[in-house]
Amino acid sequence: MKFKAFLLSVIISLVLLCVPAFAKDAQPAAPAKAPVAAAPVQDKTILPPKIAPDKLPKKIKLAGSAYIPFKTWDRGKEIQGGGFLLLPPNLIIGKDKVPVVIIMHGSRGVTPEHEYVYARELVAMGVAAFVVDSYTPRGIATTHENQRLISIRDFTLDAYRALYELRKEPRVDISRAGIVGFSKGAIISLLTAMNVKRNELRIDKNLKFKAHYLFYPGCVLHYRDNSTTGAPITFFLGEKDTYTGVKPCVNLSNELFANGAKTQSIIYKDAVHAWDFPGEEAHPEAEVFMNCDFYQQPDNTWIEKKSGVTGIRGLEGPTYEKALKGCLTFGEVSKENAKANAQSMADFKRLVKEQLFK
97 with 173: CB under 8 angstroms? Predict the structure, then answer.
């Protein structure tokens, strides 16, 4: 009973913890081909979590869980972000430190039948999981019909803020931290490996991920500096994905690989977008970026090749919207594929074991 009371007090103190900002120094021939394998918020307020571990349909056996808040931004305005940290069972405080994987959701936001399914699998194999909710703090329900509701910069900062906060968790080893993202969140999983984004956000050189896992990401951004941290990057792609596509991601993987990145792609036969999400969903008004192609120029502006629009700054504003009118299409269907789901989960867990348990 005394231990339970102590554990409860620890969890409560974590939830109420006021989070400091980053330290100053942490403010934010034929071309080579990568391997391809077949197969509105009040400031300084801690938000009630959208999905709490005790609300899950399937109970997760834990050593503990806590809502961890962190300071972040919404288009220049400071807000309170956060997520749930779930720790594997049988940890000895002060002795055991485990790997951790930060989970970045897609356009749907955090759901118990998806992000927390991955959290459950990670916890079961002895890995801590930190499920970040980037939408609730910004008053967003979904971004299917408007992907500009959250900026790429702010979404990426959430991932780094989460990793920064985990430095204070005594049972987590952030030198063995991975990041997994899904669809829109998978873009963030990739960008956290890109040196150009790290430099833009002024991320401390020691604050980095050991592995990056990208489930059906958008692959339309080509930075002029495509060097990476050197951590392995794995693209998990659906053969019949018509939302984010296969070819753009294989091409991007090859670009990165040719510049020395450790990239690989695994393509799942007959799988469409979000094959690992239960059921089938249609979003006829969803924005489809698959045919867009943005290339960063030496002056840091962007060109979108399909529309021919140039001089795009910051991937936002009127010029960006003009480019989108020339390359966006609409309509997305996602459908569960049990075979691809089982195989991709097995592949993901195998890679986590290989890359984060060293």
Answer: yes
Helix (H, G, I), strand (E, B) or coil at 214: strand
Question: What string of DSSP letters covers 173-207?
Answer: EEEEEEEEEETHHHHHHHHTTBHHHHHHHT--TT-
Residue 209 tokens, joined = 């991920």
- Taking the C-alpha atoms of residue 91 and residue 88, their distance in angstroms, rounded to an integer, is 7
58 three-class SS:
coil
Determine the Cα–Cα distance for residues 277 and 198; give it in Å rounded to an integer.
Answer: 31
Of the candidates 283, 114, 124, which has an alpha carbon nearest to the alpha carbon of residue 215? 114
What tens digit of pLDDT does each residue of 39-91 get? 522 223 333 345 555 555 455 666 677 889 999 999 889 999 999 999 998 77
CATH classification (class only), 31-275+337-356: alpha beta
Per residue in 84-138, pLDDT (tens digit) is 999 998 776 667 899 999 999 999 999 988 999 999 999 999 999 999 999 999 9
For the stretch 135-167, pLDDT in tens is 999 999 899 888 888 999 999 999 999 999 999
Distance, CA of 237 to chain centre: 15
Whether the pLDDT of residue 11 is over 70: the answer is no
Whole-number Å distance between alpha carbons of 141 and 139: 7
What per-residue string of b and e applies to 249-276 under the rule 16 or more CB within 10 Å gives b? bbbbbbbbbeeebbbbbbbbeebbbbbb
Burial of 85 (0-12, 13-18, 19+ CB in 10 A): buried
Q: What is the pTM of this model?
A: 0.84
Let me know: does 271 contact 285? Beta carbons within 8 Å.
Answer: no
Whether 106 and 135 have beta carbons less than 8 Å apart is answered as no
Beta strands in 88-162 (DSSP E): 98-104, 128-132
Nearest to 163 by CA among 122, 204, 199, 127: 204
CA distance 46 to 16: 8
